[in-house]
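Homework help board

Subject: predicted structure for assignment chain

Our instructor gave us this sequence and asked us to write out the predicted structure in token form, then describe one feature. I got the tokens but I'm not sure how to describe them. Can anyone check?
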Amino acid sequence: MGLTSALNTSLGGLAQNETSIDVLGNNIANAGTNGFKASNVLFTTQLSRTLSVGSRPTTTNGGTNPRQIGLGALSASIRKDFTQGSVTNSTSPSDLAIQGEGFFVLDSPDGQVYSRNGNFELNSQSLLTSQTGFKVQGYGVDEDFNLVTTTLTDIEVPLGDLNVAQATKNVEVGGALLPTGTLGTLGTITATAPLTDAGNANAPITGATLLTDVEASIGTPLFTVGETLSFTPSKGGRSLDPMTLLVGAGTTAADFTDFIDRTIGIQNGGGIPNDAGAGVQPGVTVTAGGAFQIVGNSGEVNDISLTIGNITSDGATVSLPFTKAQTANGESAITDFVIFDSLGEPVTMKMTSVLESRSSNNTVFRYYLDSADDSDGDIAVSTGTITFDSKGVVTNFTPNTFAVSRVLTAADEMDVTLDLSNISGISSAAAGSTLKLTLQDGSDPGTLSSFVIDETGIINGVFDNGIIRTLGQVTLSRFANPQGLLESGNSTFQEGVSSGPPFLVTPGNFGAGTIRAGSIELSNTDVGRNLVDLIVASTNYRGNARVISSVQQLVDELLVLGR
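My token output:
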């Protein structure tokens, strides 16, 4: 009986040490596998054969201890070592390493699997995948590039395919304005000779007169139905962009004055100084005497000039001369700059400023904003004031926003915040007044050219126009008992019955760890330690084999006795 037990015990020892050698061999074989977690075998004793349970002490005997003979060992568990492996740099921005206890979530043909191996790449569909083609899971973004954290999805990074633009939301203007210059007290006044209404017994025209009835001399109409008028005035010595008007059967003189007003961009209304005198606001009107009259805004850069040839009809000059009665004055400055709408289309803006008033305590300049790209048909966009204190520091500017209509090209109207606080109210007579754009945060269309992933897993796309947009976020998973995970090959694990369900988290939260992009976690196999353990396991194996050999010799001796 004893010899037989020894044989079985040693045979079990051989099997256990074979298991240990298998595990050590797997560890060493995967010493170069990224993200690999080494294992070790834990043994426990089997039941023992009890020869005696021992006895209690008596008055005449000190008692005896139990006498038991062990029946060998069992493998209690094969335990994974989930300690952090060394992290090394790689050459790919899509390679990721976890510094913590989390796992990447991958979508495989068999469902979700989990891995520490962050050797990822972009496939032909611009999806982030593992080397075995499993898709990396995380949070996507909506059409406005906001993270959608309600469900996991494939991570997409469409390099070279995604195009975005950024509408301008903020504009900053700097420069220096001369407070001692000429006050803007006069605006341009220019008018035609009186015109007659052929439809009203050649009486002076009014705003209600049909444009086709307007005559400079009796019997000679200036306009005909169906012709297209083009108007190209000059303002501040610079030609403005032309605008056109189709003359219809119902087009009136008032429509014509509105057309001229919108093309020049004359601004009027509350707060704007009356520079024409006699209570006449800036604008284009039909006078009581039947003339077209233009009254402009003050400031040298707002002075309006019209000559024969500025108004044409289908390419031919319209004989409608204007005579200037007053020239605009006032210390002023002008600057042109470009902003961008939601489609990345450029919008050219013109900003002028005119010295409006001054006192011992402050100086006030009025600014005007024009844009020929404003799709409402009027180049006048906005006007306001800039107030400086006695030290030339801006104390107030209002309004601080302006809107440009882009309904013909972009999705909606542009609302832009204007910052004029950096304009100086100190300048010299030699330098005069200057304005310049210092910042605008819009951009033209750009293509996704590269991406970076931060430690929280946020994927930031970098476009060739300088815009940065969020493209998604890599998520991690934690388990209450990672030892309960089942290895499923390809450096992945599956949820096990004892691992607990996956707990999805974003990197940097709940102990899942942070992500290091452009890096790889190496295998945590300690080759030196495993080689030493291999020597020990081999020695144990040989020891068990020696026991079997010894039992065989004893059996042979018994057989000799029987002869």
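Reply (TA_rk): Your tokens look well-formed. For the description, you could write something like this. The mean pLDDT is 90. That's the kind of observation they're looking for.
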